Predict the structure.
Amino acid sequence: MTKKKNEKKVALVAPKKIEMINIFKTTYNYYRHWVKVILADGGLIKFRFVKDEGSYNGKIAVAKPEVDKAKKVLADYKSKNQDIKDLWW
């Protein structure tokens, strides 16, 4: 084997860490089954669930550039489906 094949490739620039902003509270069950789908259908790419310690409740975290879009998508869903239980607060 040659020396070049054994060398590991090293990234020249480390990937940037994306700043996440917590926007609403919800339960993991609501996030897993409904909220995640609503956000994905709204065109958001970077979002996740941040679990609170000691319970299955948590927060919806969205990438900083997409915060306004996420709030708009969730507000639009809530206005169109007023008879459905609140999935986030």
